[in-house]
Amino acid sequence: MLALSYSPGQPNPLCVHISLLEECELFDKALEELQKKEAKIWDFGSPFRMFPVILSIFLVMYLQSRVFVDRVLFRDLRHMSYHIENTYMRLYVPMYHNIAHLMSTRPPNHEFQEWWNKEKERRQHGLLLHTDNSKSQNPSLAEIHGGASPEEDRRTEKDRHRNARQLSWVCLLRFQQSASFVAWIASGLLSLIRRANRRIAASSRFSDSWSDSKLYRVIKVFLGVVIVLLVFELVAYFKGWHFSPPSVNSADVLGLVELVYANWLWIRSNYLAPPLQALANVCIVLFLIQSLDRIGLMLGCFWIKFKGIKPVALVEFDGDVENGRNEEYPMVLVQIPMCNEREPDLLCAYAKIVDLLLLLTKIVSEQVYQQSIAAVCVMDWPRDRMLVQVLDDSDDLDVQMLIKSEVQKWQQKGVHILYRHRLIRTGYKAGNLKSAMSCDYVKNYEFVAIFDADFQPAPDFLKRTIPHFKGNDDLALVQTRWAFVNKDENLLTRLQNINLSFHFEVEQQVNGVFINFFGFNGTAGVWRIKALEESGGWLERTTVEDMDIAVRAHLGGWKFIYLNDVKCLCELPESYEAYKKQQHRWHSGPMQLFRLCFFDVLRSKISLSKKANLICLFFLLRKLILPFYSFTLFCIILPLTMFLPEAHLPAWVVCYIPGLMSILNIIPAPRSFPFIVPYLLFENTMSVTKFNAMISGLFRFGSSYEWIVTKKLGRSSETDLVAFAEKEAVSQVEVTGLHRASSESGLAQLNKLESMTKKNVKRKRNRLYRQELVLAFILLTAAARSLLSAQGIHFYFLLFQGITFLVVGLDLIGEQVS
């Protein structure tokens, strides 16, 4: 028994010892409580609490691809890709424990601190009661511990020191992880800021096509309104009016500002919020309808995969085209429409170097047109049963000469190929195809295959498509799938690949199997010439002549077949400018066509179900409603609800349902799952372009009739033209000699071309896009306003969506020009 005594006025050593033991027990229990709190860290009540976690997830997924790190945003920080690959899993697991430890003990959530203080007070209160009721004023340690021996006391003391050291190690480890994580985030943000600063300083022009549009003016006014509202709300917040808003009729109204704010609250709740909520409800209904359509398409695709449904040809052409009976092969016309199909920027870059004239010759001989012509000319089809038309609409004399020279080269090798150039180039691609179909010899051919200048069909393309026409006299079109040689070039091409993979794998395949109708993709397809003629041929009334002829053929009772297993290599636009112009044409043209053919659909003899599918699903839901609600709901209504909190968008509309739809979209391209978050944000960003295009096409604005050829770079895949290399191995020496001869004889022409390119060299720069930049500031302003009302999930969505608009507006996505 060890007795302890103390003098009056001195701290009781027993109480001090007991306090230390109680502190150790509290630390142990604190660790247990901390583990429980880590499981509950996903609390969206406070935006500050989840911000580091959400930001880390977004950045890790945004930077996971080495291609994106090297070529798009963080080109100057290539060491970051190695850091990401080696710490990817570490950032997803220990990072959350670290942030949970820091966030659970910081304001404004005082849960842990309040629990600590209450537990400590309870223990101290219990100790005082025990001391007051004890008979002895100097109890022993043995009595306190229930008769424990000195060895047990020393063991307890040793465990206490060990627990304290372990707690210190854990704290130091988590502090180190926090510091490294913050440094990683800071380096990425600083790199983004530096690149944005360089882009703004280097850019001397904005996007000419969009800066003066009416939509841009409306968005500018909208930005001014939200900035004024944010300033007003900040004043009210710091004055405490968000706790007890001043009333118009109360005596609390003492100044002009209070009176204005009180009237604003009354107008907001009675006149502004109800119509905004009604519009939001309409958009939510449209959003749900479109989501159901997307789910239905996915279920149809799963059913096709499960049952193994695919078109089967009644006949096959497997014989040798050289030694077989060529009479069995039908006559096929192959058309290659093109317009200025070469890459002048690449040519001009090398033209600056006078000493590398050989490289200039090589570049000229490897243009886009050459790849397409070569791929078509080596297709496995009897040469006497196929005619190739090269339809050149180029206005550049040098390009015309190069394409004509390429055609003559293949003519010398025995290929039936013709070069056509229109003197009066009207009607764009539709006018070009219409002019080619008016030739007298076309009546001798039964089918026509169409390939754009950047498409490279496989050698067996015709053998896998033409047989489907045999025995199907009502079949008008066989459409094949596109495969992209540059889908991994940058982030923009990856996101395009997600969209187009869903389009071909799901939309085209499901519509082709169940209703035998879909929109013709304009290339990589084979038409029955009789169906083209009976449907009215190519018309120049819209910029989507492919969809126009498909709708008219469908109204005439013709059927379509889609072959998902036959792929044709092509390119994706690598710059945002080219992609934006392409999307504008693809979304304005359908609205032009809908306005022109609406009454034709009603008067047609097809079934009522096909009419409903054509009007309600094909045109209205997928071409009009989709861009309308995407832009209105996520770029207009959602920011407004931050300033009009009486109108509300539920979290499942903002986050959960769009996330589910993004997962469904990305299933056909499973390798793109790391880009699901950038894909969701980028699709909302593109809704501005699609909405603008839809409005211009529906109301016949001038921009809806613009036709801009999508820029192509002439990229080739590793397997490109393999059949040509195998079949023509013997003649490669002759071809090489032909190139050398043409190089020597055309030296003067090359010198002339070099001097012309030197004079006309224009420095290419990435543009700034005002619409996207203004919308970025609107969304970021709304995100700042959402902090005042602690709307967690809305804050994160607005923040990341605003950052995405900023990145796109600065043209930091896609091809970067240094």
From TrEMBL:
InterPro entries: Glyco_trans_2-like, Nucleotide-diphossugar_trans
Membrane disposition: Multi-pass membrane protein
Pfam family, one: Glyco_trans_2_3
A cellular component term, taken from the record's GO annotations: Golgi membrane
Keyword Cell wall biogenesis/degradation: yes
Keywords: Cell wall biogenesis/degradation, Glycosyltransferase, Golgi apparatus, Membrane, Transferase, Transmembrane, Transmembrane helix
Annotated Glycosyltransferase 2-like domain residues: 448-641
Location, primary (coarse class): Golgi
GO BP terms, alphabetized: cell wall organization; plant organ development; pollen tube development
Localization in the cell: Golgi apparatus membrane
Family that this chain belongs to: Belongs to the glycosyltransferase 2 family. Plant cellulose synthase-like C subfamily.
PANTHER family recorded: GLUCOMANNAN 4-BETA-MANNOSYLTRANSFERASE 9, XYLOGLUCAN GLYCOSYLTRANSFERASE 6-RELATED
This protein's name: Glycosyltransferase 2-like domain-containing protein
Taxonomic source organism: Stephania cephalantha
